[in-house]
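Fill in residues.
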């Protein structure tokens, strides 16, 4: 009797756990979304704290951008490998390991006493995020079947992904003002521990797919993009013709060409090229790359403008971005209702047009610009446009993906976001640095040193925002001409959610 009781008891416990997970998809979604929020906001939560970090750890003006880029580069560069690891090892396991690495790195980063220490832990945070993030999105796809349920879940996920960056600014301001810049890192520790405890209770493990890791592909892509970003940032201080700057661009080109060769020859590449065979999906990936380049550049500069020029405290500077967060979240939540009526292309075109208008408005920034309407107006346009753009792009990318490619598809989506953000910030910082030096050569007369500094900053930011507006125009052109969907309104939906490639 005892021998028979053990299997029944074990089976009953397993059944109860499975039933509990199936009965609480909302809790599963909450765990996944909380993870995504933590990983995304960490790309910007330090932005508000940058002036304090610079004073505390003695960063240079251009070197400060590495506090943002170190995280984004490690995150984006290793996301593809993280997605592949989830396919091979099991996505829930991968999810938990990544959150564990991220949490430990956050704890150590909060105790940093040197710039090198902080950058190392920021890169380690990116590694943890790269392991966890693709599995988070893949777990969402396996928890919710394709159709209305998944679209609703993706709308929440996309709202958090798009709004998390601006939420990070608000939270970063509060923590920096009320406690210390170190708490923008410490805050991750209790959240990470809670996710690790709850994940086994409410998330199902996925099946493992036999395969190998494309380590050479991950290494060449990560080093290639990191070297490219380094080249841009060095050019901002040393000039385009400087020997190390030129060598960085040459090395980056060689590494990225090698990455393409490796992926073409690898039996199990981290970027299955079949994901890009579908024209609409490839175009959506491209816009997922360009949009964050525009968005994170805006955050990087405006957080400094509202503190250094407008004189906002860190918490007030963070709250200044609340309308942007609210607009992104509100319109992201409306997208599931709007999609059947208007179709994805109309939403993406409208969103891109609003973002472009917002960026063109920001090109008019000057030392005399006020928060209302000079900053609030562009932020609202960007928020509405971003809210309309990100969910259709996410659904277009993930619809019809084969189950064995789910990790790679979600990893590539998030890699595009993070690498686009890092590369975009580096390009804009380069432009900012060049224009700053040129403007300083022609100082204003009869003004205080502070007014002169504000003038230089505003002129350089205006030039950077002009370049950012060009990025936004490219997003609009891709949405208009590269994405092809037949029919209008609800008739677009079948083409929008294909059965396969």
């Amino acid at each position: 009797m005892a021998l028979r009781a053990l299997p029944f008891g074990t089976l009953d416990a397993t059944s109860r756990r499975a039933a509990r997970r199936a009965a609480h998809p909302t809790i599963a979604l909450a765990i996944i979304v909380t993870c995504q929020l933590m990983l995304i906001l960490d790309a910007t939560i330090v932005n508000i704290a940058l002036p304090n970090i610079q004073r505390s750890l003695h960063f240079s003006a251009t070197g400060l951008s590495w506090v943002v880029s170190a995280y984004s580069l490690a995150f984006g560069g290793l996301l593809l490998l993280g997605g592949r690891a989830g396919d091979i090892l099991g996505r829930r396991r991968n999810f938990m390991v990544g959150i564990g690495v991220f949490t430990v790195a956050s704890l150590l980063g909060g105790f940093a006493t040197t710039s090198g220490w902080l950058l190392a832990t920021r890169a380690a945070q990116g590694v943890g995020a790269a392991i966890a993030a693709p599995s988070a999105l893949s777990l969402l796809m396996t928890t919710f079947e394709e159709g209305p349920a998944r679209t609703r879940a993706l709308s929440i996920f996309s709202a958090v992904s798009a709004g998390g960056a601006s939420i990070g600014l608000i939270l970063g301001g509060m923590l920096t003002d009320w406690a210390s810049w170190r708490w923008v890192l410490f805050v991750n520790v209790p959240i990470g521990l809670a996710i690790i405890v709850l994940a086994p209770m409410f998330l199902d493990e996925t099946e493992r797919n036999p395969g190998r890791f494309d380590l050479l592909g991950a290494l060449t892509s990560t080093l290639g993009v990191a070297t490219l970003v380094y080249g841009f940032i060095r050019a901002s201080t040393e000039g385009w013709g400087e020997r190390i700057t030129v060598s960085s661009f040459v090395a980056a080109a060689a590494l990225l060409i090698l990455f393409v060769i490796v992926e073409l020859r690898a039996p199990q590449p981290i970027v299955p090229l079949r994901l890009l065979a579908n024209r609409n999906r490839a175009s959506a990936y491209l816009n997922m790359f360009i949009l964050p380049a525009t968005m994170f550049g805006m955050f990087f500069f405006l957080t400094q403008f509202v503190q250094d020029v407008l004189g906002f405290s860190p918490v007030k500077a963070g709250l200044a971005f609340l309308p942007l967060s609210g607009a992104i979240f509100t319109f992201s939540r409306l997208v599931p209702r709007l999609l059947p009526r208007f179709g994805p292309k109309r939403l993406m075109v409208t969103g891109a047009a609003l973002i472009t208008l917002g960026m063109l408005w920001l090109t008019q920034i000057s030392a005399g610009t006020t928060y209302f309407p000079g900053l609030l107006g562009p932020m609202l346009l960007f928020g509405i446009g971003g809210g309309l753009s990100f969910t259709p792009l996410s659904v277009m990318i993930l619809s019809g993906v084969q189950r064995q490619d789910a990790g790679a598809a979600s990893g590539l989506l998030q890699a595009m976001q993070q690498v686009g953000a890092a590369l975009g910030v580096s390009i804009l910082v380069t432009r900012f640095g060049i224009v700053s030096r040129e403007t300083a050569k022609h100082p204003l007369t009869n003004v205080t040193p502070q007014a002169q500094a504000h003038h230089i900053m505003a002129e350089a930011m205006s030039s950077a925002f002009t370049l950012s507006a060009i990025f936004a125009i490219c997003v609009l052109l891709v949405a208009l001409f590269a994405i092809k969907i037949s029919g209008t309104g609800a008739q677009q939906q079948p083409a929008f959610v294909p059965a396969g490639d």
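The radius of gyration is 23 Å.
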